[in-house]
């Protein structure tokens, strides 16, 4: 009897996860979460890049156009990989700091965060401002508002700023090497509002990653409590 009860308990706990109930291996769950984040990143990259290209915000050389979404072939995989890394990094940092992120932890909040992020991208491409400075300040306010509404963690803000700066420098190098270009660049080779878009994207993918990891975190907590 003492050997049977723990197995039944583990099965009961495992059934609460978002994945197949028999999968309780942590490495397997990380791979599943990474694959889901990669798919989300690829989808958002295709949709948002289509918007930017249609509004002539970004221009790709004709010889690298290779999809119906008017995007270079390497853009979606790169965005998917970055999304997976960000989505896995956020809950990992939360665990390292011993501060699990519990603010608005439900899928409805995550979906609203994604909608706001898409809206910020839409504004950067379609809303006409008097100058780039006004546009950049507006998008910066919207991006910080997104963080305040759906995150509010210091680790989330710090990671968002750091990754946004790194992504901005990487984009500068890509444009410098002629892989694509921005119309009317005002911040070296890019548009000055781009770091705001990156920051909002990092917060969004971080929220998705945290939500996916929430079930695994609860599973670990319950197993620890039972032990």
Automatic annotation (TrEMBL):
Gene Ontology terms, cellular component aspect? SREBP-SCAP-Insig complex
Query: Localized where?
Result: Endoplasmic reticulum membrane
Q: What is its main location?
A: endoplasmic reticulum
Q: Which GO terms describe its biological process?
A: cellular response to insulin stimulus; cholesterol biosynthetic process; SREBP signaling pathway; SREBP-SCAP complex retention in endoplasmic reticulum
Indicate the transmembrane segments per the record. Answer: 30-51, 71-90, 133-150, 157-176, 188-208
Keyword annotations from UniProtKB, A to Z: Cholesterol metabolism, Endoplasmic reticulum, Lipid metabolism, Lipid-binding, Membrane, Steroid metabolism, Sterol metabolism, Transmembrane, Transmembrane helix
* InterPro entries (UniProt xref): INSIG_fam
Q: What GO molecular function annotations does the UniProt record carry, in alphabetical order? A: lipid binding
UniProt KW Disulfide bond keyword: no
Classify the protein's membrane topology as the record does.
Multi-pass membrane protein
Summarizing the function annotation, the protein's role is:
Mediates feedback control of cholesterol synthesis.
What family name appears in the similarity comment?
Belongs to the INSIG family.
What name goes with this protein? Insulin-induced gene protein
Q: Which organism is it from?
A: Solea senegalensis
């Amino acid at each position: 009897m003492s050997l049977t009860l723990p197995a039944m308990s583990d099965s009961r706990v495992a059934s609460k996860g978002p994945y197949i109930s028999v999968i309780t291996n942590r490495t397997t769950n990380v791979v599943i979460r990474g694959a889901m984040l990669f798919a989300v990143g690829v989808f958002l990259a295709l949709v948002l890049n289509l918007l930017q290209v249609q509004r002539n915000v970004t221009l790709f050389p004709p010889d690298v156009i290779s999809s119906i979404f008017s995007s270079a072939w390497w853009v979606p995989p790169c965005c998917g990989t970055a999304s997976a890394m960000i989505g896995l990094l956020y809950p990992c940092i939360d665990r390292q700091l011993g501060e699990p992120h519990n603010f608005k932890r439900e899928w409805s909040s995550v979906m609203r965060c994604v909608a706001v992020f898409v809206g910020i991208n839409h504004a950067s491409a379609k809303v006409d401002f008097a100058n780039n400075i006004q546009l950049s300040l507006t998008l910066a306010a919207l991006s910080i508002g997104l963080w305040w509404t759906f995150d509010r963690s210091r680790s989330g803000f710090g990671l968002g700023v750091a990754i946004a700066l790194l992504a901005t420098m990487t984009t500068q190098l890509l444009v410098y090497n002629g892989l694509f270009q921005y119309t009317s660049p005002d911040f070296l080779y890019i548009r000055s509002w781009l770091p705001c878009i990156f920051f909002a994207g990092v917060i969004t993918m971080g929220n998705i990653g945290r939500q996916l990891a929430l079930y695994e975190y609860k599973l670990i907590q319950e197993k620890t409590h039972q032990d």
